[in-house]
Amino acid sequence: MTDDRTEQQKRETYDNWVSRGAAWDANADRMQKLARGLNQPLIEAAGIRAGQHVLDLASGAGEPAMSIAELVGPDGSVTATDLVPEMLAGARRRVAEAGIGNVAFEIADMEALPFTDASFDVVTCRFGLMFLPEPEKAMSEAFRVLRPGGRAAFMIWGPRDDTTLFRVFAEAGEAVFGADPRIDFDRPFRLGEDGRLAALLSAGGFGNVSEEALKLTPRMPAGSRFWEPQRDMTFGQCLAGADEAQATALDAAIEAGFEGYRQGDELRLTVHARIGTGDKPD
Fold first, then answer.
1. Rounded distance, CA 124 to CA 59, Å?
2. For the segment 6-32, what is each residue's pLDDT rounded down to a tens digit?
3. What value does the mean pLDDT of the chain take?
């Protein structure tokens, strides 16, 4: 990728997440229960223990940084980072409201981290790596800031069609807004091929590399509109400029899409994430 194209993609990504920050903050508390099913497997894969100092990349509105802070306890710490101040504002608010005292915040580019070598025991990242123009650089940076013997754990989405919500959203968005450049249903899933994450970890210098699929089968009450927070976070830019007819059409298309997964009073859904881990040699 050329330098010009890399900078253009970074700017597009930055602007996109600036526009999403308020919606992520507004919906973070409602999303907490749903996020737990993804947080805990990542935290367990990272092997986080009390007293450790953890760097969480692309922390967004606060998870998994807040859950990690509870686990490492008062003798440990979490540095929560994000490229976009508007995204990290939600994490700052939630940490303050919860009275959590062992979380620090830093605006940081994952491809050029503002930390000295060997600063952290663990590096975590949930659903951030896929948006980078050069994820290889992020892996090298994670390796650099880890202490010898440290561990990194990254979570990404698997193929889009393996996660019902994104499949339904993609179809509904296309039907209502067409090929709107403000909605990107390709980039979040571009690393989801089996083995891609492990290859990135190995190329970054990590040893003891492992990649595994996390496949969940949530059951949601039919008609519960559980998808509303994610709708706001995904389509916020489009909805801000949409008329009432378009907003109504989007909701109708989403509801119709989920009806295809109804069994009785439930919607039977699928989720596919992938977790990659690696260790920095002693």
1. 9
2. 777 777 666 666 666 566 666 667 666
3. 91
- pLDDT interval class at 86 (50, 70, 90): confident
> Does any domain span residue 22?
yes
* Residue 91 parent element (H or E): helix 85-98
Identify which of 5, 6, 1 has the alpha carbon closest to the alpha carbon of residue 111: 6
Three-state DSSP at 12 gives: helix
H or E segment and range at residue 135? helix 135-145
Average pLDDT of the residues in 102-114: 96
pTM of the predicted protein model? 0.92
Question: How many domains does the chain divide into?
Answer: 1
Contact 159, 272 (CB under 8 A): yes
In a domain, 247, yes or no: no
Lowest mean pLDDT among 17-31, 52-66, 197-211: 17-31
Give the CA angle between residues 167, 266, 244 to the nearest 5°.
55
Strands of the 53-57 sheet, one edge to the other: 103-107, 77-82, 53-57, 120-126, 146-157, 271-279, 207-216
How far is it, in rounded angstroms, from Cα 232 to Cα 83?
A: 21
Q: Is residue 11 part of a domain?
A: yes
Record the tokens describing residue 169, joined without a space: 């959203």
Host domain of residue 53: 3-160+184-217+272-279
Q: What is the structure's pLDDT at 232? A: 86
